[in-house]
Amino acid sequence: MKVSFHGHSVVQVQTNDKTILIDPFISGNEACDLDANTVKADVILLTHGHNDHVGDTIEIAKRNGSLVVAPNELAVYLGFKGLNTHPMHIGGAHEFDFGKVKYTQAFHGSSFTEEDNTIVYTGMPGGILLTIDGKTIYHVGDTGLFTDLKMIGDMNDIDIAFVPIGDNFTMGPEDALIAADWIKAKVVVPVHYNTFPVIKQDPEVFASKVRTGEGKVMAIGDTIEL
């Protein structure tokens, strides 16, 4: 299984027979190296409804016939847009043909802003535990620091965690270091930074300070094999 990072919070997981995209914010994301018009996706996993995470989901899913897995209200909203969706919710898990998905809590907001500036409520935000062939990826999603991250780390053997460090909208680097201690992933990758001026951070400094597991900065397009 190959796991690659593509800017902001965009993560791609490639198995033997499936391509999975998490939070495919591609168009309008100068940090992303993917092309929304050509990228393949059998499955799209969404943490929450903000535009910089839903991104190009509708266009990609329609072109590829992708299954979209999302928190319930977001899944219902995208279903109204004609997508094939599977709704889930915090604490729930489901075995798919590509692996097991479990949603964890995240402390953040969740809404989608339409082109006419209408704001659509899209339910609770979440983090995603994705387990495939005995390996677990934790996309923490957009969140502030909360103590149940320790419980999540105690309950799961996490191989790689994608942790936001940008501050302002999510955890900053100091809180993210505490989160990394609690999650206890073997590899900790910073995400959700430098896309906008207000979330500018130095990921190398963060990675060098990770105390539990290996802090690793993934450049755009970098891949890790699990």
TrEMBL record:
Transmembrane segments: none annotated. HAMAP family: UPF0173. The lineage of its organism: Bacteria, Bacillati, Bacillota, Bacilli, Bacillales. This is UPF0173 metal-dependent hydrolase J2Z81_003175. Belongs to the UPF0173 family. Keywords: Hydrolase. It comes from Virgibacillus alimentarius. It holds the Pfam family Lactamase_B_2. Residues 7-192 form the Metallo-beta-lactamase domain.
